[in-house]
Amino acid sequence: MTTEQIMSDLRSAVDSSNEWAELGSRFADDAVGIHLAIFVEPFLSLVLSGKKTIESRFSKHAIAPYNRVLVGDLVFLKAGPVVGYFTVSSVDCKTLQNKKELDLIRMTYSNAICAESSDFWRQRIGKHYVTLLGVEMATQLPRVRVSKVDKRGWVVLRQSPQSGEKQDSQL
Protein backbone atom coordinates (compact mmCIF):
# COMPACT_ATOMS: atom_id res chain seq x y z
CA MET A 1 0.00 0.00 0.00
CA THR A 2 1.31 3.39 -0.93
CA THR A 3 -0.09 6.86 -0.58
CA GLU A 4 0.14 7.11 -4.37
CA GLN A 5 -2.19 4.11 -4.74
CA ILE A 6 -4.71 5.57 -2.28
CA MET A 7 -4.58 8.92 -4.10
CA SER A 8 -5.14 7.08 -7.38
CA ASP A 9 -8.17 5.28 -5.91
CA LEU A 10 -9.64 8.60 -4.71
CA ARG A 11 -8.82 10.36 -8.00
CA SER A 12 -10.70 7.61 -9.88
CA ALA A 13 -13.75 8.24 -7.68
CA VAL A 14 -13.55 12.00 -8.34
CA ASP A 15 -13.35 11.36 -12.09
CA SER A 16 -16.12 8.75 -12.29
CA SER A 17 -18.83 9.80 -9.82
CA ASN A 18 -21.07 12.87 -9.91
CA GLU A 19 -21.17 13.01 -6.10
CA TRP A 20 -17.37 12.92 -5.92
CA ALA A 21 -16.89 15.32 -8.88
CA GLU A 22 -17.58 18.38 -6.69
CA LEU A 23 -14.19 17.71 -5.06
CA GLY A 24 -12.35 17.87 -8.39
CA SER A 25 -10.94 21.39 -8.13
CA ARG A 26 -9.84 21.00 -4.51
CA PHE A 27 -8.41 17.56 -5.22
CA ALA A 28 -6.37 19.00 -8.11
CA ASP A 29 -5.11 21.98 -6.06
CA ASP A 30 -1.67 21.07 -4.68
CA ALA A 31 -2.05 23.77 -2.02
CA VAL A 32 -4.81 21.70 -0.35
CA GLY A 33 -3.61 18.95 1.96
CA ILE A 34 -5.41 15.61 1.65
CA HIS A 35 -5.72 13.16 4.52
CA LEU A 36 -7.29 9.77 5.15
CA ALA A 37 -8.67 9.25 8.66
CA ILE A 38 -9.88 5.92 10.00
CA PHE A 39 -13.12 6.18 11.98
CA VAL A 40 -15.22 3.88 14.12
CA GLU A 41 -18.81 4.27 15.23
CA PRO A 42 -20.36 6.22 16.77
CA PHE A 43 -17.83 8.92 15.82
CA LEU A 44 -18.20 8.45 12.05
CA SER A 45 -21.97 9.00 12.15
CA LEU A 46 -21.56 11.92 14.56
CA VAL A 47 -19.19 13.67 12.12
CA LEU A 48 -21.43 13.06 9.12
CA SER A 49 -24.53 14.25 11.01
CA GLY A 50 -22.81 17.51 11.98
CA LYS A 51 -23.05 16.86 15.73
CA LYS A 52 -19.31 16.20 16.16
CA THR A 53 -17.64 19.53 15.39
CA ILE A 54 -14.11 18.74 16.61
CA GLU A 55 -12.13 15.67 15.56
CA SER A 56 -9.49 14.74 18.13
CA ARG A 57 -6.45 12.53 17.75
CA PHE A 58 -4.36 11.66 20.82
CA SER A 59 -0.98 9.90 20.70
CA LYS A 60 2.11 9.10 22.75
CA HIS A 61 4.37 10.27 19.93
CA ALA A 62 4.20 13.26 17.57
CA ILE A 63 2.65 11.32 14.67
CA ALA A 64 0.17 12.43 12.00
CA PRO A 65 -2.03 14.37 12.13
CA TYR A 66 0.00 16.27 14.74
CA ASN A 67 1.45 19.38 13.02
CA ARG A 68 0.58 17.99 9.57
CA VAL A 69 -2.85 19.57 8.92
CA LEU A 70 -3.88 23.09 7.91
CA VAL A 71 -7.19 24.93 7.77
CA GLY A 72 -8.81 24.13 4.42
CA ASP A 73 -7.35 20.62 4.12
CA LEU A 74 -9.63 17.74 3.09
CA VAL A 75 -10.03 14.77 5.40
CA PHE A 76 -11.52 11.64 3.85
CA LEU A 77 -13.41 9.41 6.29
CA LYS A 78 -12.73 5.68 6.10
CA ALA A 79 -14.61 2.97 7.95
CA GLY A 80 -14.02 -0.02 5.70
CA PRO A 81 -14.52 1.99 2.49
CA VAL A 82 -14.19 5.77 2.28
CA VAL A 83 -17.67 7.10 3.03
CA GLY A 84 -17.29 10.86 3.25
CA TYR A 85 -15.08 13.83 3.94
CA PHE A 86 -14.87 17.08 5.85
CA THR A 87 -12.98 20.32 5.48
CA VAL A 88 -10.71 21.39 8.34
CA SER A 89 -11.93 24.70 9.79
CA SER A 90 -9.44 25.02 12.66
CA VAL A 91 -6.30 23.29 13.91
CA ASP A 92 -4.92 23.17 17.43
CA CYS A 93 -1.95 20.94 18.27
CA LYS A 94 -1.03 20.65 21.93
CA THR A 95 1.48 18.80 24.05
CA LEU A 96 0.13 17.30 27.23
CA GLN A 97 2.55 17.33 30.15
CA ASN A 98 0.23 15.85 32.78
CA LYS A 99 -3.29 14.64 33.57
CA LYS A 100 -4.37 18.15 34.58
CA GLU A 101 -3.81 19.32 30.99
CA LEU A 102 -5.83 16.35 29.69
CA ASP A 103 -8.61 17.29 32.12
CA LEU A 104 -8.59 20.83 30.71
CA ILE A 105 -8.98 19.42 27.17
CA ARG A 106 -11.85 17.29 28.47
CA MET A 107 -13.64 20.23 30.10
CA THR A 108 -13.15 22.47 27.06
CA TYR A 109 -13.83 20.07 24.18
CA SER A 110 -15.76 16.98 25.35
CA ASN A 111 -19.10 18.20 23.93
CA ALA A 112 -17.65 19.15 20.54
CA ILE A 113 -15.67 15.88 20.41
CA CYS A 114 -18.84 13.97 21.45
CA ALA A 115 -16.81 12.21 24.14
CA GLU A 116 -18.61 12.47 27.45
CA SER A 117 -17.72 8.88 28.42
CA SER A 118 -15.20 8.41 31.23
CA ASP A 119 -13.80 5.42 29.32
CA PHE A 120 -12.90 7.65 26.36
CA TRP A 121 -10.85 9.93 28.61
CA ARG A 122 -9.35 7.13 30.70
CA GLN A 123 -7.95 5.62 27.48
CA ARG A 124 -6.19 8.91 26.72
CA ILE A 125 -4.26 9.11 30.01
CA GLY A 126 -0.56 8.92 29.20
CA LYS A 127 -0.93 10.42 25.73
CA HIS A 128 1.44 13.34 25.18
CA TYR A 129 0.11 14.89 21.97
CA VAL A 130 -3.35 15.95 20.87
CA THR A 131 -4.56 17.36 17.57
CA LEU A 132 -7.94 19.10 17.59
CA LEU A 133 -9.46 19.72 14.16
CA GLY A 134 -12.54 21.81 13.49
CA VAL A 135 -14.98 19.92 11.26
CA GLU A 136 -16.94 21.80 8.63
CA MET A 137 -18.88 20.77 5.53
CA ALA A 138 -18.96 17.10 6.54
CA THR A 139 -20.39 15.29 3.54
CA GLN A 140 -21.38 11.68 2.98
CA LEU A 141 -20.20 10.18 -0.33
CA PRO A 142 -20.90 6.96 -2.19
CA ARG A 143 -18.60 4.29 -0.78
CA VAL A 144 -15.21 3.82 -2.40
CA ARG A 145 -12.69 1.15 -1.51
CA VAL A 146 -9.07 2.25 -1.24
CA SER A 147 -5.88 0.23 -1.01
CA LYS A 148 -5.06 0.84 2.65
CA VAL A 149 -4.22 -2.24 4.68
CA ASP A 150 -1.89 -1.05 7.46
CA LYS A 151 -2.97 -0.11 10.98
CA ARG A 152 -2.34 3.64 10.89
CA GLY A 153 -5.33 5.68 12.04
CA TRP A 154 -4.29 8.71 9.97
CA VAL A 155 -2.50 8.93 6.63
CA VAL A 156 -1.20 12.17 5.13
CA LEU A 157 -1.82 11.61 1.42
CA ARG A 158 -0.69 15.06 0.34
CA GLN A 159 0.71 17.67 2.67
CA SER A 160 0.07 21.30 1.88
CA PRO A 161 3.36 23.03 1.02
CA GLN A 162 2.49 25.73 3.58
CA SER A 163 2.17 23.32 6.51
CA GLY A 164 5.78 22.47 7.41
CA GLU A 165 6.39 21.84 11.07
CA LYS A 166 4.32 24.31 13.05
CA GLN A 167 4.83 25.15 16.67
CA ASP A 168 2.46 23.36 18.99
CA SER A 169 0.59 25.24 21.66
CA GLN A 170 1.03 24.68 25.37
CA LEU A 171 -1.95 24.78 27.68
UniProtKB/TrEMBL annotation:
Identify one Pfam family in the record.
ASCH
The protein here is known as ASCH domain-containing protein
Q: What species does this protein belong to?
A: Acidithrix ferrooxidans
Source organism superkingdom: Bacteria
Q: Which residues form the ASCH domain?
A: 39-131
